[in-house]
Design the sequence.
């Protein structure tokens, strides 16, 4: 069964619009990887080392980083707790070759649920103006900024995913 996407509302409040776009791009990325085997998830285009499996794991990390570590000040947990980022700053991208397609998708789905719970927690404690506990380049980001950043992050990688998927099997407009 194809992963379903829902278009964001065209006339809604700010939060509903931001969440609508974030959910659309979350589903879009998952859909681009849907139905591919482990080998296909490692394929790249040209000289790039971007692969769909790496994108899934990278965005799982990005979700964890922004909604839990930055926003709430929590320590990295789960598979992220022991990563030696100094040894491989792209560990999330590179380590995905060791995960099955089902594992990569499940990781992202589980993290999105945790991110949504962290988002709800922050909304109840200051709304979109709530500032992150940790700073980025010496400044605390608002929850609003984090949501926009997450939309941007997913949109950029969904564009990459479109190209990679089409190069694998010709699939377009997923």
Sequence:
């Amino acid at each position: 069964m194809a992963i379903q996407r829902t278009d964001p509302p065209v006339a809604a409040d700010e939060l509903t619009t931001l969440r609508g776009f974030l959910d659309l791009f979350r589903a879009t990325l998952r859909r681009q990887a849907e139905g591919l085997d482990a080998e296909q998830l490692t394929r790249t285009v040209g000289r790039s080392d971007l692969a769909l499996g790496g994108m899934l794991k990278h965005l799982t990390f990005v979700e964890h980083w922004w909604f839990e570590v930055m926003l709430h000040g929590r320590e990295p947990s789960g598979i992220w707790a022991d990563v030696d980022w100094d040894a491989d700053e792209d560990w999330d991208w590179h380590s995905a070759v060791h995960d099955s397609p089902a594992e990569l998708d499940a990781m992202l789905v589980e993290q999105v649920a945790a991110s949504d719970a962290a988002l709800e927690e922050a909304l109840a404690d200051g709304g979109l103006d709530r500032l992150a506990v940790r700073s980025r380049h010496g400044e605390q980001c608002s929850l609003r900024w984090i949501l926009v950043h997450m939309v941007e992050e997913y949109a950029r990688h969904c564009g990459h995913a479109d190209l990679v998927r089409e190069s694998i099997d010709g699939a377009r407009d997923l």
